[in-house]
């Protein structure tokens, strides 16, 4: 059964959804096409008409914050363009970029220089993003630049007072955490000092508010948002991978998430096996073990999985295959051997419809 809900009335004649990218208790995000004054464009819709009534005031507040920040940041060309904002919907342009957790810009000094410059531009306008700890809120464009997305927690300050300075510091600290992960050797001594010291407001939040937030979202609403994959990636994927590993002839397995037209978040299982397993038999086995709603939507048996120099599976490449963003894979491959492995996987990929990022 399709999960699409009719577009909000205020844009019903201008919006056509292609896929649901993400859902949480505050909003639903869809990828599709929006009719502007100069024609139809690729766009992303955040809609709050599907949010429960008891969170509607908060959802509306977040929608207004995002609209205000996007409108102010439009001149900078480092964030989506605001195309429409109303009471129940916000439409922004689609940025052709890969989320940080997929792009994995290892030792890409230019990307982090671009990220720091983009952040300074935001801060000069008095805008603090406030949600840059999430890697999916950073995008790497095809030319290696950094862009931002998801501004619903952002704040537009009227001055550069104490709370602006704290928020700007935390934006910087989160950027440096990502830099430490992907390009640690490029950190300066000053940047390392920033990484050692959280602001007092962050320390208070982590000791109090964050625990309450997790208790409500993960306990009461069972909502988890890890790298855009949600609960299925956190709870279902590891169990599915472990079950696959128990099957005869299976050497290894990886399960990644992708936006799915019907379930919202789909799972794609890649299986490295000694022999050519019958994928329908594997599907029936997993459906029997987990049920139809939790079993992966896509299953692909391969001769070999892509790996890094340490032998770890390169999930970022597999996720691009799952999302059918195969044109973004080439820069991530360094050797002819890896290219042969990936080419075979791409040639046999199962998801041929969806081509969207989170």
Explained architecture:
This protein starts with 14 loop residues before the first strand and ends in an 11-residue tail after the last helix. The chain folds into 3 domains: 9-93, Phosphorylase Kinase, domain 1 (2-Layer Sandwich), CATH 3.30.200.20; 98-220, Transferase(Phosphotransferase) domain 1 (Transferase(Phosphotransferase), domain 1); 248-347, 2-Layer Sandwich (GMP Synthetase, Chain A, domain 3). With 358 residues, it is of the alpha+beta class. Helix content is 38%, strand content 21%.
Give unreliable regions as ranges: none
How far is the N terminus from the C terminus?
A: 22 Å
CATH superfamily of the largest domain: Transferase(Phosphotransferase) domain 1
Number of domains: 3
- What percent of residues are in strands? 15-25%
CATH architecture of the largest domain: Orthogonal Bundle
From the spread of the alpha carbons, the general shape counts as: globular
Number of helices: 11
Helix content: 25-40%
Instruction: Output the CATH class name of the largest domain.
Output: Mainly Alpha
Structural class: alpha+beta
Major sheet characteristics = 5 strands, antiparallel
Mean pLDDT: 87
Run of helices and strands: EEEHEEEHHEEEEHHHHHEEHEHH
Please state the CA-atom Rg, rounded to the nearest Å.
Answer: 21 Å
Q: Can you count the beta strands? A: 13
What is the name of the CATH topology of the largest domain? Transferase(Phosphotransferase), domain 1
Sheet with most strands: strand arrangement:
1-2-3-5-4
